[in-house]
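Thread: Newbie trying to understand structure tokens

Hi all, I'm a second-year student working on a class project, and my supervisor (Dr. K.) asked me to get a predicted structure for one chain before our next meeting. I've only ever worked with sequences, so writing a 3D structure as a token string is new to me. If someone could post the tokens and maybe explain what I'm looking at, I'd be very grateful. Here's the chain:
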Amino acid sequence: MPKYLYGAAVQGIQDFIFQTNKLKEMMGASELVEKICTDCFADVLYGVSNSERLKKDPNAILNAAGNIKYIFDSVDECKRVVRIFPKEIMEFAPGITISQSVVEIETEEDFGEAVQKLEKHLGAQRNRQARDLNLGLMGILRSRQTGLPVSHIRKKDGKTEYLDSATFHKLFDKNKLFDDKWKRKETFKLLCEKAFGPEIPLDKNRLPYNIKEMTGSNDWIAIIHADGNGLGQIVREIGSDKDTFREFSRKLDHATTMAAQRAFKDTVYKDLQGHDFIPVRPIVLSGDDHTVICRADLAIPYTEAFLKYFEEETKKELGGILSGVKADGRRGKSVFADESLKLTACAGIAFVKSSFPFHFGYRLAESLCDRAKKDTKTLYKATEGNLPASCLMFHKVQDSFIADFGDIAKRELMPQPDISFEFGPYYLKDIKQGRWTVTELREQSKRFRDKEGSAVKSHLRNWLTLLHENPAEADQKLDRLIEITELSSFVKAIARKDGNKVRTREDGVTVYPVYDLLAVNTIDTQKTR
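---
Reply by user tm_fold:
Sure, no problem. This is what the structure looks like when written as tokens:
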């Protein structure tokens, strides 16, 4: 008898999470998203929200990172889920939509081909517009925060709150009546436990409910988005075997979780003593995706640690599976043959003020992550047989106009057609080719911390401005700075066209690290409180 491979992909996750700038709503939203692929799907499938049963179900292939794959033995049962599941999700988390597809499987040998066909169908389904349940008439009362139609009104302490359906579900248990006895759900603690480790004490007074509680000596915070490299190719290779596909998906999720926990303990936990609140809040941690908001000075150390441990954990969890993955077009040579059987990842970090709209910050972080992936893949092609290296890209937002990072780089980071300050990405390990490691970035930025370095910092900022306005005057400024400073060799290395810390791209553009070094120094040392 034929079987039916069901696939579902969650859409609009980040827009749903970052709909407002309120941290408590983001936390509730991220927990709802976490439950969609597990508890919600199990509820529709079995009639009870039992994610543990789903884990043990041999027909459950994938339930993580906004993706579901399940094999149905009955066409009627498959039709029932296809009919019910999208409506259940759109009511459970208004603003989220689901793309679905089903492929018939005649034999076990057809599984790999069915997976590829399913992915194509899901890609086509994503382009079909789903009806938004949040739409309302022009004259209807709307939320002051989101502009969506109000579904609930709450009066407390003399204040009136107008909540749309999505915000309501993020904050409250939908099964309770809406009155002053409502208590906001604390289930997002489960996501914090997953990201920090079950042994970390999560007293409710240490989990910030307001973004201001996460900031340190200045008002900067960071939005980090990390994503694994080359997963599409790997999935194509292992997708022909159902059991291997399921094992890979679950072990990848566990490896990412362990990497996040180890990074937290290495870079954040030791800094918690004497602080009222934990300065890191996970948003997404599933599959190979990790999105987090944290205090700005912790962002680069945390991301560097996460990338390092992601490689280590995927080597430990997935080494046996990856040994059989072959590189496309490489005559059977393993794509992981160079040093170890592991995965790598890239990350983007957007440094923004705490009042900055988070959905813009996230989109910038995602764009920076894509930029890092593009760079490492370019180097990967130049060194055949090697895995794309782990790296991170960051940007400190200086204005209110945010677009794709490519537009920002042209507008802000290219003062002249042949000069750029886009020096990243920064790599986990030394790969030469003019790229810096994250460690080198952090160490070089410390050169500005003493008295002489502080003076040089001010002059270099002025030099950056003059490069936009008057290049000839900028050259004079730099020459004079080199004459008077004790750090002349350092300044020459990072600001001269022939400096040993400066590189020239293939398009002839000279790229300087000065802008990034000053940005990191400001984030780490600026005190505005």
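A couple of things are worth pointing out once you decode it. The radius of gyration is 25 Å. Confidence is low (pLDDT under 50) at residues 173-185, 327-333. Feel free to ask follow-ups in this thread.
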